[in-house]
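User: quick one, sequence for these tokens?
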């Protein structure tokens, strides 16, 4: 009798465990399907945002095309200026750069800047805050930061596509000064660094725009930051030419990682431990600027909702 009861109990326990396992498996499968559907829906949603951004870009297509074409014009003046400084003397170096290396540096700097620099994003975001359009966007089932980044990405990708023929022409004309990377690993590292440069520039622009929650006009802040960026990102001259004490200080700021550092990677002037450290600093600033952007958004949107906009 005891053995019979024990066997019956064991069968019942096994059946309960089996049923529980089946329920757990069914729940997990449901959760996985729900997660997949959610992810697919999010991708589709931001794909539509990307498409809207592309369509808006082509509404002003001539303005877009002319901006793309003339985006490389400053390179011509820069080349003529540095040619005069080198005096046409073969073998002359300035701060470790030959004339050809400097031409490559500025050609790549112009290319990277056109690839990653936000175009009026901070003005557009500030306008949406100031004009009350933010209220309409808050009703949409989108993350505002992701929404703005998708629009930024759509513009930059289209801009790059239009710009590439001009860049290819410039590189062909300057082919005697152009030296491509010797190491295959340089290309993905350059792409990684350029991607992080884009994140840094976008999050800085986004954070500046968030100030519109507190101040009416952000133009002064924009021009102040732009002036610092223009100097410390290496657009005027390579940062190697700075005094050693100042270069050491600047190296820890976010600005060299907006264009100077990716170009240094492409030119293979930074390697080994210095390369790893630079990528680490760049990743830190990309993350820090994201935190700043998100933090200012949360503070600003509370104030925006509190005053009844």
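Assistant:
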């Amino acid at each position: 009798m005891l053995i019979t009861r024990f066997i019956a109990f064991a069968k019942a326990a096994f059946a309960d465990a089996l049923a529980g396992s089946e329920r757990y498996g069914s729940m997990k499968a449901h959760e996985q399907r729900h997660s997949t559907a959610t992810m697919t829906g999010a991708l589709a949603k931001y794909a539509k945002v990307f498409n809207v951004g592309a369509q808006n870009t082509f509404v002003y297509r001539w303005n877009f095309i002319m901006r793309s074409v003339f985006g490389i014009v400053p390179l011509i003046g820069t080349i003529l200026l540095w040619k005069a400084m080198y005096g046409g003397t073969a073998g002359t170096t300035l701060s470790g750069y030959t004339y050809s290396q400097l031409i490559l540096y500025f050609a790549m700097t112009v290319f990277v800047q056109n690839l990653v620099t936000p175009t009026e994003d901070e003005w557009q975001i500030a306008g949406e805050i100031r004009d009350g359009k933010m209220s309409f966007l808050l009703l949409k089932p989108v993350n505002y930061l992701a929404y703005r980044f998708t629009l930024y990405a759509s513009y930059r990708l289209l801009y790059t596509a239009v710009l590439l023929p001009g860049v290819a022409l410039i590189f062909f004309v300057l082919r005697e000064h152009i030296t491509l990377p010797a190491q295959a690993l340089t290309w993905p590292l350059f792409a990684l660094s350029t991607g992080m440069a884009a994140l840094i520039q976008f999050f800085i622009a986004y954070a500046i725009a968030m100030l519109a929650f507190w101040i009416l006009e952000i133009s002064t802040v924009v021009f102040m930051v732009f002036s610092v960026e223009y100097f410390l990102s290496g657009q005027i001259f390579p940062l190697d030419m700075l005094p050693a004490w100042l270069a050491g200080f600047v190296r820890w700021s976010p600005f060299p990682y907006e264009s100077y550092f990716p170009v240094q990677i492409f030119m293979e002037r930074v390697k080994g431990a210095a390369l790893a450290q630079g990528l680490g600093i760049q990743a830190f600033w990309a993350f820090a600027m994201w935190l700043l952007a998100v933090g200012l958004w949360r503070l600003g949107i509370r104030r925006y909702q509190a005053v009844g906009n």
